[in-house]
Design goal:
Strand content: 25-35%
Distance between the termini: 60 Å
Number of domains: 2
Strand order of the largest sheet: 12-19-18-14-15
CATH architecture of the largest domain: Sandwich
Shape: elongated
Structural class: mainly beta
Number of strands: 19
Radius of gyration: 26 Å
Largest sheet: 5 strands, mixed
Oligomer: single chain
Number of helices: 1
């Protein structure tokens, strides 16, 4: 059911000492890059941890004829348990098994460009050797999370009656510590604001939200008006994630000139493209938001000015 996870050798502790007249073989030429790559892996493993840095979002396949049995995974960057970089520039796809399973990402290294050894090579040498290593990734299905060397992306189940697959993102720890934050709003905190014709509020983030499971709704994007008719607004159209504008949008703010509008985002439930809650605490009224921990509540307010 799975591709084999390639377990790397221990991180090297030796490197070359150079001196004039030193005779060097392939082992010596490999020693220095292996040593530096080992340091890089150790840095990734201990300072960042395994997980997704960005991308690798799992969604049902775009083709309506196979959305019930296939998923696609966006390009991305991640780190596995051994500290190796997981990098893909292409959209990947994978057929979903019959049983609900966890889609995982693994590291793969392949030899490419076979070339013949030079004539001075021993007679026992193979007729050709791979000239380069190609780093890559592979997708595989597991019954549950926890297998060493694999980064879990989502729990997936086949769609019913031709409907799309059900995708449940798995929160990414470790490498996803570079948290998404509230980066911009279309109002100035604590100031007098003139609302546009659509009486619309928008919130932009430092990273896109998850395309399907972002959590933006009337329960998590709350607007309360304090004025002649104080109360919490329930919009005619639910707040939503606008993928074209890359913003969470609340339309139809019913407030009069002079009213104060209080906005709350319950970021424990608002997930970025990696399935990680937005770091939403609005400390000191400054943007971007955040206190270094996923989740929290973003709170802001403004007064409606004349001409609204």
């Amino acid at each position: 059911m799975t591709d084999k996870v390639d377990v790397p050798p221990p991180e090297p502790t030796q490197r070359n000492r150079y001196f004039t007249g030193k005779f060097m073989t392939a082992r010596d030429f490999e020693a220095d890059p292996d040593y530096l790559y080992g340091l890089h892996r150790r840095h990734n493993r201990l300072l960042h941890g395994a997980g997704v840095v960005t991308g690798f979002t799992v969604t049902p396949h775009d083709d309506p004829t196979c959305r019930s049995e296939w998923v696609k995974v966006s390009p991305g960057v991640g780190i596995d348990d051994y500290g190796r970089d997981l990098v893909s520039d292409a959209v990947l796809s994978k057929q979903v098994p019959v049983q609900k399973s966890v889609l995982c990402l693994g590291y793969r290294r392949s030899g490419i460009e076979p070339v013949p050894p030079v004539s001075t090579a021993p007679a026992s040498s193979p007729p050709s050797e791979m000239n380069r290593w190609q780093d890559g990734v592979f997708l595989t299905w597991e019954a549950d999370v926890g297998k060493k060397g694999l980064v879990p992306l989502a729990r997936v189940q086949r769609g019913q009656s031709g409907g799309p697959c059900t995708v449940e993102p798995i929160a990414r720890g470790g490498a996803a510590r570079s948290l998404t934050r509230v980066g911009e709003t279309n109002w100035s905190h604590g100031k007098t604001v003139h609302l546009d014709a659509e009486r619309r509020l928008s919130v932009r983030f430092t990273r896109p939200l998850h395309p399907e499971h972002n959590g933006v709704s009337a329960h998590t994007f709350r607007v309360r008006v304090i004025g002649k008719e104080t109360g919490t607004l329930w919009p005619s159209r639910p707040p939503h994630w606008d993928s074209r504008e890359q913003a969470a949008v609340f339309s139809g703010v019913r407030a009069e000139v002079g009213d104060w509008v209080h906005v709350s985002l319950l970021c424990d439930f608002i997930l970025d493209e990696n399935g990680v809650p937005v770091d939403g605490n609005h400390l000191g009224g400054l943007l971007p938001s955040g206190n270094g921990a996923a989740g929290g509540t973003f709170e802001s307010w403004f007064q409606v000015g004349g001409g609204a």
